[in-house]
Amino acid sequence: MRSLQTTQFSILELAPVRDDQPVAFSLHHALELARHAEKLGYARLWLAEHHNMEGIASSATAVLLGYLLANTTTLKVGSGGIMLPNHAPLVVAEQFGTLATLYPNRVELGLGRAPGTDPHTMRALRRGRQETEDQFPQDVNEILYYFKDAQPNQRIIATPGQGTHVPVWLLGSSLFSAQLAAKLGLPYSFASHFAPRMLGQAIQLYRDNFEASEYLAKPYVSMGVPTIIAETDEEAQYLATTPYQRVLNMIRGQRGKLKPPVESMDGLWSTAEKMSVDNFYAMAQIGSNSTVKAGLEKLLEKYDVDEFIFTCDIYDTDKRLQSFERLMDIKNNT
């Protein structure tokens, strides 16, 4: 059984946009967080691709990754993930091959099979393209091919990209990507930070069916965990009303910017809505250092994952940085 000390800690950043700040503030804060993560010793920081969401500024994922890579020195940086149905595999390989050529051994490519947006925006992203989620395995294999050393008489070569051997992960919130990751022998990250329902089943399926590959000798699993850590449980619960409001608005079909915390959610949600938010955040760890430490140890005991990848939607950016600092304190002082 792993301990928190032997479990990798990583960060998933969506560059959340506050309702009182311009988008530029969020992009610059993403770099501030990346530098903070590098100093604290986090294993990696990933950015997620989402579109047509005014509260998320990481839509041009590869571009923002370049900004973070150019202004850090050792941190592994990647996508969590690139939503592959929105892109031609060759273009993705060239983008990440370019980043990997400029910043060797620091770039990772996590791939998802969902569009990461609403149906109208999905059609705008795929205009002129017929690809569907059913083509996801073929597209993943094509990207893996572009990252390998070029073969004799290879007709299409990703330049830059070919021979860079960029590490590829598969991401998912259901069983499909777990099965594909197992078949291809790739690391797997489950999106339990927003869709925890099938976590245990997906991990078991992945481990039971894993086939060793040139990429991995044995299964490697990470799971998404929303966290908010503060001086006291009460303060953390207060700060958590920001993401509660965000998820509540999503349930209502509204995808706005981050709102400041409120003293109480009473009167803002119905009983059914509260249950939906609780289900969304079933894996969330919210509280003081000791409370979150106990919660993470329970998750580790139950799922025995290799890595936690943490999200955090605290409104105050200083308190957000402090929360990630407290997380690493928990890891290092277990």
UniProtKB/TrEMBL annotation:
Gene Ontology MF annotations: oxidoreductase activity, acting on paired donors, with incorporation or reduction of molecular oxygen
Gene3D superfamilies membership: Luciferase-like domain
One Pfam family it belongs to: Bac_luciferase
Domain Luciferase-like per the UniProt entry, residue ranges: 22-246
Positions of transmembrane segments: none
SUPFAM superfamilies according to UniProt: Bacterial luciferase-like
GO CC entries: cytosol
InterPro entries: Bact_Lucif_Oxidored, CmoO-like, Luciferase-like_dom, Luciferase-like_sf
Record PANTHER family: LUCIFERASE-LIKE MONOOXYGENASE
Similarity-based family: To bacterial alkanal monooxygenase alpha and beta chains.
Protein name: Luciferase-like monooxygenase
